[in-house]
Amino acid sequence: MRLAPQPSAQPLRLLVLLLLATAVPSSPVISTGCPDRCVCDDQLVVQCAGQHLTTFPVNLPLATRQLIISNNRIAELPPLALNYLSDLVYLDCSNNSLTEISESTFGNLRKLAYLDLSFNTLTRIEDRTFGPLASLVMLRMTDNPGLSEIHPDAFGENAALQVLDVSRNNLTVFNITSLIALPAVRSVGLSGNPWSCECDNEDLSLWVHLEDEGQTVCGSPADTQGRRLGEVGIQLRTLCHQTLGSWDYLFFVVIGFVIFAAGTVSAWVMGVIMVLYERYIKKKDEQLEMDDEEESIETGRAASTRSGHDNGNLKTSHTV
Ligand SMILES: *[C@@H]1O[C@H](CO)[C@@H](O)[C@H](O)[C@H]1NC(C)=O
Ligand SMILES: *[C@@H]1O[C@H](CO)[C@@H](O)[C@H](O)[C@H]1NC(C)=O
Ligand SMILES: *[C@@H]1O[C@H](CO)[C@@H](O)[C@H](O)[C@H]1NC(C)=O
């Protein structure tokens, strides 16, 4: 169905046309009309929702403040066309086929306060993507089933950000250090992601504990699946900061056993040596005793022969 522009937008568009004709050289991306299949009103709202669009609408009024292109199949936000809309405050791109947002996509949208990128096919968010959006208050980026990576500094410069929703994506970790340092942040939707409940996600789990909303649960490792991220956070804090890990404990158990075994074996060896030594000593003593006995027998004989001699001497002395 083709929607006709509302008649009330007519005088404004004529004015813009006049201004453009005199001041701005012609450009392929700006126009004074209303894009095909869109409705433009005098409140500078351009409504193009659910029009089976596959490309970003052309001929957008330069002064557009609200642009709604949701429920289409738009695959790309062209930076050039988008950045002419420097007065844009509200941009709803939900339910399209966006796979990528480049660093320059939002380069000139300094007044943008509301951005909806939900229900797309984004896979990752880079460092500088939202950097220029100095007035951004609310960012909805839910239901991108392949979105698994958000750069730690992706929101670092969005000083006005109050509400961020990244629910129902494919996120496992999310470094929130720079996000929670923002002065205005008051709500972050995290539910429905397969969060990692390991040390790499400790900061998030501890922070979630304060704001838990129920559906923010662990996706891995297997033994924590389905448990609330905030609940696991307390355990992670002790687990991740232990100076002794489980390997250290295993090491001590093994070392303890080795020392015990070595002690037992050495005691046994010592015992054997002592017994053998004792036996040897005993044997030697016996031998000595036997030698002594033999010796004493011999000395006995010697003594008797000597006495015989003495007798002889006596006899001789007698005879002398
Ligand atoms: C997305 O848009 C299509 C039409 O393009 C519509 O049928 C569908 O219900 C929309 N989905 C959501 C979640 O809004
Ligand atoms: C989600 O991420 C995991 C890896 O972390 C990947 O294996 C899976 O295919 C992703 N799911 C989707 C729908 O892209
Ligand atoms: C999180 O990101 C900040 C920079 O924004 C970095 O300094 C910090 O080391 C990161 N934390 C983790 C756990 O990776």
Query: Which architecture of the largest domain per CATH?
Result: Alpha-Beta Horseshoe
Number of strands: 14
Name every ligand kind in the structure: 2-acetamido-2-deoxy-beta-D-glucopyranose
- pLDDT under 50 segments (min length 5)? 1-30, 305-320
- Number of helices, where a helix is a run of at least 4 consecutive DSSP H or I residues: 6
C-alpha end-to-end distance: 171 Å
Helix-strand category: alpha/beta
Task: Estimate nothing, just give the exact number of structural domains.
Answer: 2
Radius of gyration: 47 Å
Please outline the major beta sheet.
8 strands, mixed
Estimate the global geometry from the Cα principal axes: rod-shaped
What is the fold named in CATH at topology level of the largest domain? Leucine-rich repeat, LRR (right-handed beta-alpha superhelix)
